[in-house]
Amino acid sequence: MLLRGYVQGVSKDGFLDWFLDMSTRMPRRLVALSSSAIAAIYFAGFAATRAADAGMVSAATNVPTSVSSEAASSSQNAPTVSPYKDGTYSGTGTSRRGNVTVSVTVSGGRISGVNLTKVATEYPASALNGLPAQVVAIQSANVNGISGATYSAQAFRGAVQAALQQAMA
User: Fold this and answer.
1) Close Cβ partners of 157 (under 8 Å, ≥ 6 residues apart)
2) What is the pTM of this model?
């Protein structure tokens, strides 16, 4: 009875043919429409996150993260020239999951300490607890990633790189 309004002018015998025909066509149209909507939403999210990631990469590309191994091994007796000025520097790193702010202390031209001053990410600060010691040990912002907190670690690296940029001599 409900379908009668949609099939005016179709005979009873033709109704079954029409119904079977529409039942095979409608799902395809519905699937096509749904697929288009999903693709549009996916693309919008992808474009937004790529833009955010591209901004972080371009900010990080100008930051030297370590002293070259050639300079360190060229002469054992020559004094080592550090690219960093002594002091305490603050930097903030951003990722799509939040921000991390660190304080980096440089003394004697070497990174002597790194402190997490603010962690505003989706994951707890405890996920980043091992990273400050890695920075001091390797004298670089290129620390290992953290499984399950990849973007928090990315924000941490960006924060250390920002602080080290300020410390450049």
Assistant:
1) 60, 93, 141, 142, 143
2) 0.54
